[in-house]
Amino acid sequence: PAGLLNFNDVKVRRGAKAKVDAVLNVRNGIEISTDSGLSASDRVFASTIRVITRSSFDSAVDVSALTVEVTGGSTLGQLPTTASILRKLALNVGTLTLDAASRIDVTGHGFLGGETSTNPFGSRGMTVGFQAGSNNRNGGGYGGLGGSVGGEVNPVYGDFRDPNDVGSGGGGHF
Questions:
Q1: Residues of the chain with pLDDT under 50
Q2: Rounded to 5, what percent of the chain is helix, strand, coil?
Q3: What is the pLDDT at residue 36?
Q4: What is the pLDDT of residue 88?
Q5: 63 phi and psi angles, rounded to 5 deg
Q6: Which residue in 50, 40, 3, 44 sits closest to 18, CA to CA?
Q7: Which residues contact 110 (CB under 8 A, 6 or more apart)?
Q8: pLDDT at site 163
Q9: What residues have CB less than 8 Å from 117, skipping those under 6 apart?
Q10: In whole angstroms, what is the distance from residue 131 CA to residue 142 CA?
Q11: 56-59 and 75-78 beta bridge pairing
């Protein structure tokens, strides 16, 4: 349900998984630790966000915090785009700390690829505007042309130097 959740602190620990479908406003901080996960489908506001020890934090839209720390083999990512809902990770952060074992990863969460069960275009990938894109095993892309083995390929959009949109899905095979 949509709405607003206000907390002083949020802690997701020891393998717990939490999902929030409302605006999450946390006065102090969010801690996601030790094989845990938090997914948020609306905006997140917190003074600090700590994602530590093989944990994950996935958001669908804006994340605003003074400090975000992603360490210990953890991941900061986005919820996947669907056939009708565009989702992309947008960070508004004062200080971001990311160690060498951790990552920001949005791989595979752009527009749907061909032959995905919820893709209305069958074997064609999906591209900007939720339109049919690449076909016949041709690659999706962003900021450059996807790979081509013949047939239709998504037109180029975006700038790889300033990624601010999701990538298009590649075509499936017959």
A1: 1
A2: 0, 40, 55
A3: 98
A4: 87
A5: -120, 120
A6: 40
A7: 81, 140, 142, 166, 167, 168, 169
A8: 82
A9: none
A10: 15
A11: parallel
pLDDT computed for residue 174 by the predictor: 56
Contact present, 35 and 18 (Cβ < 8 Å): no
Residue 49 neighbours by CB under 8 Å, 6+ apart? 29, 30, 32, 57, 63, 65, 67, 68, 69
Whether the CB-CB separation of 63 and 44 falls below 8 Å is answered with: yes
Spatial CA neighbour of 146 closest among 131, 160, 156: 156
Res 2: pLDDT: 64
User: Which letter, b or e, does each residue of 34-62 get, where b requires 16 or more Cβ atoms within 10 Å of its Cβ?
Assistant: bbbbbbbbbbbbbebbbbbbbbbbbbbbb
Nearest partner of 4 among 19, 25, 18, judged by Cα: 25
Residue with tokens 């009708």: 84
Q: What is the separation, in whole angstroms, between the first and last Cα of the chain?
A: 40
Strands (E), the chain: 4-12, 17-20, 23-33, 37-40, 44-52, 56-59, 62-71, 75-78, 90-98, 103-105, 126-127, 131-132
